[in-house]
Amino acid sequence: MLSYIARRLLIAIPTLILVSIFVFVLQKLLPGDPALVLAGEERDPEMLAFIREKYRLNDPIIMQYFYWMKAMLQGDLGISLRTRQPVLDLIGDKLPVTIQLAVMAMIIAFVIGIPAGILSAVKKGTAVDYIANFIALSGLSIPNFWLGIMLIMLVSVHLGWLPASGYVSPFEDPAKSFQTMIMPAFVLGTALAATLMRHTRSAMLGVLKADYVRTARAKGLLEHTVILKHAFRNALLPIVTLSALLFGELLAGAVLTEQIFTIPGFGKLIVDAVFTRDYAVVQGVVMCTAAGFILMNLVADVLYFLLNPRMRSSL
Amino acid sequence: MSAVISAADPAEETVKPENRAWKKLKVNRSAQFGLLIVAFFIIIALAAPILPIDDPLATSWSAVRKAPSAAHWLGTDEIGRDILSRMIWGAQASLLAGVVSVFIAVLVGVPFGLISGYFGGWTDQAISRVTDALLATPFLILAIALAAFLGPSLTNAMIAIGLSAVPIFVRLTRGQVLAVKTEDFVEGARAVGLTHTAIMGRYILPNVLAPILVQATLTVATAIIAEASLSFLGLGQQAPAPSWGSMLNVAKNFMTQAPWMAWWPGAAIFLVVLGFNLLGDGLRDALDPRET
Question: Is the CB of residue B274 less than 8 Å away from at least one CB of chain A?
Fold first, then answer.
């Protein structure tokens, strides 16, 4: 087991190095003198020379990469041009907010997506199946920022039930925090619910045809016991793996959701950084996202391994 | 009698896969519905210059944020521009972005996938690791980062979305090639001494096109949402040129005063994306050789 994880970690290293090269090359895409960009409004030649020296812009590009990489490995992702704070601190501040949003969205996605998928598979070919499929496809097609705007207009503006924006930490006021986050989490969760529903349906359709399900039925077990205990447990495997992989989609969705509901999270951080030309922050966010995604992939593999008895006995 | 049967049998077997797929597609109601939606938007986008609509850029201070009426069917925006006309011109930006970025992704991704799958070994390892690295960054975040560094414009948004979608096509093509390259006809082509390029182009590529077509259709849907998202964030189509995403970006500031500004662009994105998704799903069912 440990050797398996170690092997997967080793494969992740070249991937991370390549991501870091992309992220580094990004800043070379910027037109013009990077020192001028880094200096912002500053045009003092001495200041520019200082920046060139500080960021070693006079060195060959390969060396620049190594310096950058070395700093990053020591946890130094650079300094935000806008707030003058270390990028790592900024990310550390914003990440918990996005994680709260993501976890809530994931719960909503599970609660809607999985039962809908099971129901749709069990009732394959009936009106229930068609309706569930159509709703799922609509969930995939609806731009979540539009859904957010529509919900704000309905729930906040017309009905006045929930606040339209803002953020309260769950440690300060859990109830208020829930109120401000439930609508964004729902918006973020719908697309995931749709993906989960479609995968649950096809996984369930696969196992419902299996011999052991027929045997369970032949034994005279109740239909819901057959479906939940025998079929669903086996269909769960691909669903668990998929959920870990949906992490990327969740983060990307969070960028837009946080923008609409003005939630001060990870997604808002990157958008604000883009507009203030705070390139170190953009690079830091991309790097952290990739690292997180690779980690989630690893978690997915390990979970798959733990959940699948056939794989366990093969070692 | 036996002659009749033996003559009929091969005829039945030689039904081309394309024809069978077409037959399946013709009875698939939801795919037809998808095609209808997509065709509707394409026609509207192409006909924009000749339709009797207002200038999408013409402002009118006497018609600021007017609700839908006989004069302005979908209402007007914050500086009195006709929303219907901006919607129609915006369709051009959205469809163009969807199609062009997928075109870029296919043009770059498919050759790399072909090479990676066909040659295997070291080349495959190198291409696959780069693909992994690109896939490790979520599509939209990669596109945002690229758009940020390339500068905000519709063209750069298309490039950013296209490049972000490249790994999807590399991986798909590679997997398909791995399955096809062990087939007898490829062995045969190799045995008669055809060049690698000829084998890939004439024997492998045509046999992997079906799943690429399905993926491309579904990716157009993703790309349209991505363009709208980038424009919504201000990284795509720039003002005053119309695009559905940027219209929503402005509309979110007038949710209480002019809600109609937000209704239409979002509904249009939803419909056109739904159309491509339905069509893509239908194509997949029709082209899947496993389903009969």
Answer: yes
